[in-house]
Amino acid sequence: MAKERAKKDNKNKKHFFKDFKAELKKVIWPTPKQLVKSTTAVVFIVIATAVLVFVLDLVFETINSKGINILKSNIKNSISVNETVEDNEVVDDSEVNTVIELNEVENEIVEE
After folding, report:
1. Is 80 among the domain residues?
2. In terms of C-beta density within 10 A (0-12 exposed, 13-18 middle, 19 or more buried), how is residue 107 classed?
3. Residue-number span of the structural domain to which 24 is assigned
């Protein structure tokens, strides 16, 4: 049984290589001119795609960084506007002016 199996494997190997050689004969190999044209086209498309991806990356990075900075400034502004005077601690100069004006008005009312 082992001999039959070995013969069959040998036959399959020979058959494989015969088929392989027959398929290679069917291949239409490109001429040097076609090869240069195809290679040039591939290289050009790869470079163009790389440049496009690079430019898009720069644009999106710039938009993202500016957008983040705008969001940060908006958040800072909304926090400073929404903060109130707590424990006699004043955060914003406009709030200081408002508190001073209110104190002056209270003092005038008390004096009258």
Report:
1. yes
2. exposed
3. 16-111
Q: Identify whether 8 is part of a domain.
A: no
Domain count, the chain: 1
Cα 41 to the center of its chain, rounded Å: 27
Q: How confident is the model at residue 16 (pLDDT cuts 50, 70, 90)?
A: confident
- Residue 6 domain-assigned? no
CA distances from 33 to 36, 38, 44 (A): 5, 9, 17
Residue 86 and residue 76: Cα distance in Å, rounded? 18
The Cα-based distances of 35 to 27, 45, 48, 89 in angstroms read: 15, 15, 20, 78
Contacts 24+ apart (CB under 8 A), 63-71: none
Q: Which residue has the higher pLDDT, 69 or 30?
A: 30
Tell me if 2 is assigned to some domain.
no
